[in-house]
Structures are given as C-alpha cells and as structure tokens.
Amino acid sequence: MANERKGIGILGGTFNPVHLGHLLIAQSAYEYLNLAKVLFIPCCNPPHKNMTPLLSADHRLNMVRLAIEGDLRFEVSDIEIQRGGISYAVDTVAQLHGLYPAQELDFIIGADSLKELHLWRNIYCLLRLCRFVSFPRPGYDLASVRPEDLHLDPPWPDRLLLSVMPGPCVDISSSDIRHRVAEGMSMRYLVPSAVEMYVAEHHLYT
User: Fold this and answer.
1) Total number of domains in the chain
2) Core-most of 16, 57, 145, 159, by most CB within 10 Å?
3) Digits of tens for pLDDT over the chain (206 positions)?
4) Does 198 fall in a domain?
5) Residue 15 lies in a domain
C-alpha cells in the first residue's frame, strides 16, 4: 500500500507563459516527494527579474488554469496576485502555513537558483518555514557547486545540496517561447495546446 501523501509542493514563477517544462518539474516533484498536490503560484511582481513588459496577472493566471485543467495533482493559487505588490516567497509561505497548518511545505526551484537563495528576502526565516527541493536545469553543472558557493550559514548549504531531486532536464524557457511567437514561429510542443490556443486567441506576445 502506498504511503499517504501529505506534503504541499509550491511552484512559483511568472509563468509568462507556463510551459511543459513547468508541468514536468511539478510532476516529478509530486512523484518523488510523495506530495498531496502541487500549487502553481503566479507572482504579482517578481523581486529578482527584470520582466518588461510582464503580461497581465489575469492572462498568466488563466494560462496556468488551462495548463493544469483536469489534473487533480495540480492546483493554481492566486494568493500573490491578490496580495499585490512585489511577491516575496517568505510572505507567501507564511500565508500558506495558515492555510495548510498540518502539512509540510516543499518549495520547488531549479538547481540554478541555489546560488541566488542568499539574496532572497528573509532567507533564513524562509528556510525554517519550508523545505527547498531543486531539480536539474539544462546546462547547469550541479556537481561543481560547493557548499561555500551558496553564501549561507551552516547547516543550510549542505541541506540544500542534499535536496536535489532527479528529474527531466528539459530545455524550454518562457523567454524563448515569447521570442518565437513574436517572430511568427510555432509554440506547439512547448506549451499545452490549450495555452497555445489562448495565446493565439488573445494575440499575446506579438
């Protein structure tokens, strides 16, 4: 009999647009971490990215809803959009603790973000509120990363480097998709078909 699923996975981002790479990471996290579900959380305004222009929150939220429709493993949350302003992970995780007080929270990131975590707002508070799990990114050599490269106090670097999960290394990026659409090229096989239709219907990224 399978173990009871209890954790909540957190997958945040701009999702500008959401693509198959996001879905594959979410699926891997769900399976390897034995999660109850994965929450897709589109941000309102990202703190660390220069996303100009950033598609409206409504469009990005709608695309995520279409991408995960019918998949009971996944759920979309608009808590960062409803909160407004800059979307800081520490605020979101604290809010999720109030919504899911009895469940563990696993924050899902790409392994290339490990070296940037020390720059996140109130990172030590955040590290105590949730567990970070990371997945491989194309072209990123995780084997070369040393604990001191993370610029965090012990024991966090060792814990983070031990929480790297196996998963598909898919070279898909939202920026490349936006470029393809702007150049009149197809986004098929990069995003769910419902997202492809939504982008075309609303003339996004052209």
Assistant:
1) 1
2) 16
3) 356 778 999 999 999 999 999 999 999 999 999 999 999 999 999 987 665 679 999 999 999 999 999 999 999 999 999 999 999 999 999 999 999 999 999 999 999 999 999 999 999 999 999 999 999 888 778 778 999 999 999 999 999 999 998 877 788 999 999 999 999 999 999 999 999 999 999 999 99
4) no
5) yes
